[in-house]
Amino acid sequence: MSLFLITLRALAPLFLLILLGYGLKRARLLHAAHVPVLNGLVVNVTLPALIVRGLATTPRLPHGAMQLPLALLGAQAVTMALAWLLGRAGRFSSPVRGALLVVGVFGNTAFLGYPMTLALHPDQFPAGILLDQFGMTVVLYLGAPLIGAHFGTAGGAGRDARATTLRFLRSPVFLGLAAGAAARLIPWPPAWLGALWVRDVGQVVGQCLTYLGQGTTPVVLLALGAALRPGAGRRFVRPLLLAAALKLVVCPLAMWGLCRALGLHGGLLAEGLLMAAMPTAVMASVLSAEHDLEGDFAVSVAFSSTVLSALSVPLALSVLR
Fold first, then answer.
1. pTM
2. Cα separation, 273 vs 255, whole angstroms
3. CATH number given to 3-319
């Protein structure tokens, strides 16, 4: 069986959960008001537990893993530069151009990238966490208010950037990252770790984190499906197609070139390509609307790129090797 079909089969259950979430919304069993609750459960509880467990129990970070966030930053810079040039050449409105710089660049490396990593190559999950947090999330939270200040509202970039940065640093996801890294990297005294009560407490806490982390994939994908709005992009056909091409084609191509230049191969290259090929992040569309960019366009890109990624991700992973 070809790598494309193997990858497609591994990812099919994830996209089926997204379709189930959308179907539950259509059947009025899930409503728009439920989506923030489900997302809040993931962001504040299950995802931090998954991160802590993943980092604390990994034998070691794969060699070269620290280079992956740098490669993703470079790929996103290339994609953003191209988005700026093409958005200007296309004479799109300022809010659409600004949203293009956000939703055409930043991918769903957490909500969709984590489940896909666990499905395809779980041994690279710690590298995936580094990619998501330092290659995408920090830059998105810092960049969205600055882009919004230039293309949307006229001022307040510094205040908004500080506020969003502080919000990220105080978030349970970042605190989970810090806790997992501390548990893994701090040289705890062997005598203390050997104490019976420490082992017992560690087993109980570890199992609790496992149970919580296992809830991340179904909950987040159902919420993603329930949040999809198919009709939002009818007014934005040209910029929508451009944004999808940038996110699903240009970004993984740039990531492949940079990973090759850095000498990354095997599992690390596959993980880097997977994360770079992710569709538009839901949070990218949220921040676009929050900072007075074209919100309906941003939502339409999130929907369209997610649907298209069912084929583009397996294709990218099978072609770019």
1. 0.81
2. 6
3. 1.20.1530.20
